[in-house]
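tool_log.txt
---
The assistant was asked to compare two proteins side by side. It first ran the structure predictor on the initial sequence, then on the second. Raw inputs and outputs are pasted verbatim so the downstream comparison step can read them without reformatting.
(1)
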Amino acid sequence: MRAVAALVLKDARIVYRDSLLAFLPLYALILALVMRLGVPFVPVDDLGLYLAPTVVQFGTILLGTVLGFALIEEREQGTWLLLRVLPLRQATLFLYLGAASTILSSVVGLAAAMVYGYPIADPIAFSLMLVAGSLLAPVVMLVLGVLATNKVEGLAVNKLVSISLLLPALVFVAPLPWQLAAAWLPGYWVYLGLLEAYAVDPSALSAIYWPDYPDWLLVAAPIGLSLGGMIGLARAYLRRAS
């Protein structure tokens, strides 16, 4: 327990020392407020609905970025080598990283949704998709930690991650099977699941090439993809630290 508490304090110090990293979670709420105020002035039917899932995912991406850059800073300073002697099992370490990033992502995502203020049609489905989507935060964190050796490389990797998150927009322009080009991304399933949870009037989804997936798959797919990604990336991170 003391070792886990030490990890929490260590990560908190890294984020506290970097004002940009500390600001990013707040930035998600600022973006949600700007979108809430700006959407009514854009003459696009149901735009507020279509953007609502993206607002929830702000927390996931920004929290994953914050913790990913914390891993990069550890690599730059050489403190990541402590993994060799840390009095924690490797599985416990990555369980901590995954749980902490997922919980924080859920909190920020929920706060962003509340600031945005779009009505939720199905609170239970929304809650399930919020948790499923928050599992993407540790994936983003580990992608940065594995692929970037310094903060400059981290910015480049983060741009690529951000671009890949635009692929769920295929639902607006491509029917199946072309949408499967984005199906390997957890965010694709999370977007669809949140969209369905938000849709008070199902007819609002008529502008989308809605795939006829069962509801359980919208939850299970992002969880399975995120967990698989975490396991593979954690192994890669440990190989680099060994």
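(2)
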Amino acid sequence: MMRQQHPLFQQYPLDGQVTIGGETLSTPYHIYDGSILFIGGTANARAASDLLAGEQLMPLLDSDGKALMAVWVCDFTEANLGQHHELQISIFASFSPVPPVTAHPFAIYRALILNPAAMMICHGLWNNTERVVRYNREHLLLDARLSRRQIDRTAASWRFQVEDAERGQRVAEGELTVPGRQPPQALMAMAGHLGLRGMMQSMRAPFIHVPVVNTRAAGSAANRIAHTYTKADKQVIRTFGPGDRLTIHDPRYAALRFEPAFVQHNDGVRFVYLRPE
């Protein structure tokens, strides 16, 4: 209960109810505790544009002509929808053309912090409970699918394998190490890329804010924005290394030829996903 009293949930409280699958559920979506792997990098720009052809969006590019992309692996241990897992494949985009961000392992951070037009498209989404899948599809207008999922998580590593339960096909799998402390080289590289303005803006924000856009695959007539806010007890950011492994099997996303650049480990996560606007 103490985690639910955090200022994040005081500012964005549970203030409504929705009936989904014959069950009354609270809204907005709250995560009170859990862990997240945020794996960011780049993808083939033509493949990303093809994937967004039916949307009103265009991928954000870096100065090397690559699209910005990420994979999220989440183990949520306490939430208003109950304990659940999540795999998300995201593409960063905007509604209108914007200048490319300088190519860098941490280019995604610069785009999100310094470019108000930058948003994250939740394109591929898998959850391991029917309740969360229905909630994401019917209430948050996300193209969620049911997963069979295995996560083996220790203090030193994550191993995961996700399968689409309906199709019986593997989606993604990986193994990543978790450093015991923040590598100073990564912070120095990030600070140099963000610059003084970016670092100050990041440090002043009480919560990490990321606007998330749905696709039209879940039946939405338009791409709608939902604002998300995150606060973690512990965060470690590092570059993707030779000891890490990530393979995307889903043909739609394997075609993107994802090149991971960094890994952000978040523990003690508090998270709010507001209703789409």
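---
observation on (2): The chain is about 20% helix and 45% strand. The first helix runs from residue 7 to 11.
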